[in-house]
Amino acid sequence: MSKKRKTKAARRPQTKKKPKLSLWLGAAALAGLCLCLWLARRGSADASNLAIYKGKLALLEEQVLEIEASLGKSPAGGQASQAVFLSLCNQEERASVFCGTGADLRAAWQEADQKAAAFLEGGNYDPVWVKADVVYFSETIEAQELKRQVLAARHEFYRFGLAFDSRFDVALLEAELNGAKIYDYENGGVDLDYLNRYLRIADRPTLEELPEAYILFQCKGWFCDEENEVYPLGDQGLDYGRREVTMDAAYAKELILNASAFLEDQLREDGSFIYGIYPRFDNEIENYNIVRHASTLWSLICRYRLAPDEALAEKIRQAIDFMLKSVIYDQQGRAYLYEEKADEIKLGGCGVAVVALTEYMEVFGDEQYQEVCQALGQGILTMLNQETGEYYHVLNGDFSRKEETRTVYYDGEATFALCRLYSLTGDSFWLEAAQSAVAHFIRADYAQYKDHWVAYSMNELTKHISDNEDYYAFALQNAQQNLETIRQRDTTYHTYLELLMATFETYDRAAERGFSTAGLDLELFLDTVSARVNRQLNGYFFPEYAMYMKNPKRILNTFMVRHDGYRVRIDDVQHNIGGYYLYYKNYDKLLQYGLQNPQ
Length: 599
Description:
With 599 residues, the chain is α+β, with helices and mostly antiparallel strands. The protein has helices spanning 2-64, 105-121, 143-152, 174-179, 192-201, 249-266, 290-306, 310-324, 347-364, 370-382, 409-425, 428-443, 452-464, 469-480, 483-488, 495-512, 522-535, 543-546, 552-555, 570-593; strands at 82-89, 96-102, 129-142, 161-163, 171-172, 213-224, 230-233, 276-278, 283-284, 327-329, 335-339, 344-346, 384-385, 390-391, 394-396, 401-403, 568-569.
């Protein structure tokens, strides 16, 4: 028995060895076939991507080589002589950048191309966008001087690339340095940790220490988009690295629709928004502000006016429902917009909630929010001293008083809302309350605050009281007193265009009714409008800006605040939409008054 068991035991592996080997060989063959197919597909994809890249590169090369004669013999200086950067982006991740140098532009171009092509051959990467930058200016700068200059600059506004050696072995574009937080605006100079983090992710050698001197440079650039359109980019000043556009009504509408689509994408199922993003590292802002929710809602309704869309209408209703959950009532039935996290009621929140709801009812012909609007208006009146025209700004959640003054913006928001309530109901006490506040604005010279909400409230008030010359004079002064500051402001400061355009509507009304408009220098005003509609484009995430952020596709074609880490917040987007909406709406009339088509 034992022998039989041994025999059976000895035979058992032999009888099953052939099927196992056969299965293994079959599986191996199948795996090999799959691998071959995958490699073939990958090879095909790599070849296709390389072909796409080469096609875009040829288009860019046509533009680049035209400037060769104007560059001089050694614009990059040092051992580099000529330097070219090629940036490739698939929209999904931060652009990959390749630098080439050479004795002439063609040699530098060829070296950058070889590096970019090798990158594409090494992986399945779709070069949706390709950007070319050619160094046209450079100078050596000592580390201490660089530190001083960066410290003196506004955050993210130091617009120079850096080479860390004379050969440009380690050289980064301005967009890379600011986009990856490598410039250190708190301490000056370069942050070595952020620099090496960036280099590691890009699979490039890191630096043990920073050099004692750098090559500072700027570039002429060209961007090729997904449709093979090539855009020359600004090469100096505040527009550095951005395409030039003609800011007519059609383009303003495109901006509005694009930025509104971004806001729609930020809406959650419960009607709240993703509040904001710091796009350099794709970090969401962990905060919420119900006042900004309300004003953002208003801008989406304005967007609906331009292009009615039932899907958008449903999202607007969801956002309204979310906002109304924050409306609370006192024992007298007066309503307030309540900020739960701070346990407080802000005057401005009550105001913009009324503005958003009245805008909705006007656009959709729906009167369902009349009662809550009037209750919110009654809440505003509890915070207004109608004898002096002064507002109290912040209450506690139990309706007791908390803070008399917080921001001047609340006064204009509340007064705008009171005017809107008169439009809604025709009840004169709303208008009388608004007039009390405006009388205080005039006495206290609110023009000093450069406040867009004051401009909105004066525009709305003069729709109903069209024969008060003092109102027109103050409304125009609110702009005139600040025109030079507004025109020269280096940041996008998105509320300035709202102020200008709300004032323009008031100016036009005054002119139509025969009142003096001498208080506004029309030529300077129109020049300022032109300057601002272009300046705000520096805060728009064109792809040539977005490609240097961590997740370009997420923030493409919306608005940001460059000097706050490229912050994209719902109210930043809302204010830009508001200004461009009024510009679009009034564009033809602006031209009639003498606006030069802004380039």
